[in-house]
Amino acid sequence: MSANQTANREREVHVQSGGLMLVLILGLLLGDVALIVSRTVTGPLLAVCIVAAPILIVLLSGLFTLQPNEARVLLLFGHYKGTVRESGFHWGNPFYSYGTSSSGELVVIPGSRSSHSGAKPDTTARVRSPQSRNKISLRARTLNVETLKVNDKRGNPIEIGAVVVWRVADTAQAMFDVDNYEKYIPTQSESALRHLASLYAYDNGEDNEVTLRSNVDEISSDLRRELQERLSKAGVQVDEARLTHLAYAPEIAQAMLRRQQAEAVIAARQKIVHGAVSMVHMALTELAEKHVVTLDDERRAAMVSNLMVVLCGESEVHPVVNTGTLYN
Questions:
Q1: Which DSSP string corresponds to 270-293?
Q2: Which of 136, 143, 70, 65 is nearest to 101 (CA)?
Q3: Which residues pair with 126 in a beta bridge?
Q4: φ and ψ at residue 279, rounded to 5 degrees
Q5: Residue 218: in which H helix or E strand, if any?
Q6: Secondary structure of residue 180 in the 3-state scheme
Q7: What is the pLDDT of residues 206-256, one digit of tens each?
Q8: Which of 64, 83, 161, 287 could pair with 147 in a Cys bridge, judged by C-beta atoms 3.0 to 4.6 Å apart?
């Protein structure tokens, strides 16, 4: 926070029962109307009854309901008075402000047209309706960060996307510390994902190096930690953050695919050669220990060469049977 800005903190408060206040206000209103109609009061008392009627009607506007996992921020003449988190039917000061909550729902208005010049007329329009009296949803919500094109630690262009599960933890911070927390979250999430991708290589890391492709759990944990640091000033709690898309950019995808194929071929060859050498060594050792045949260095070298060809060759080998002496 800057020097001229202080962080707000939520204060949970309790208000009057809506059912009790509804019965009380309606009883007073009906009694007041009955006195005025019956003309049993005159003079100053009649004036009081006439003035009381609109006041009682205004008091009815203080009734409101809260669903489970929903809260209402109480704002009176620009001052934060607290937050109601208890679900049910409540009554509060009717002068609590409606505010400028940004968490309203998108409403489709039929019959509207686009205001841009040259644009085709549209039969519907989507506008954001203000949410009733600073109500904020406390439910878990999912943000799908669209696929971004960024450079990894080695400068390779990659495509990366993520999903973030978040909820409002501090309603006062969400309302007063950022201008619009629902727009703030996608912007910061995209920025955090770009920064994270630049810190790690896509793959082929050095010994014990964390990479984007091989260490998904560690990357997701780091992403969640960075998002929490960025979004905490908006009173938002990040429940989960995970990568949903990871690939090389199209312009280098074919080259990287050929590199991966070459690396796979090399790895396979290394394993084949290692196995072949072990088998040749085992064969020579067994022949020598069991005195099956005694070979000099030249014929031992020829036998090793033949066995390596048989074991490492990709095509099927057709042996030539020698029916004469071994040394001819």
A1: HHHHHHHHHHHHHHHHHHHHTTS-
A2: 136
A3: 108
A4: -70, -40
A5: helix 216-231
A6: coil
A7: 667 788 888 888 999 999 999 999 999 999 999 999 999 888 877 765 666
A8: 161
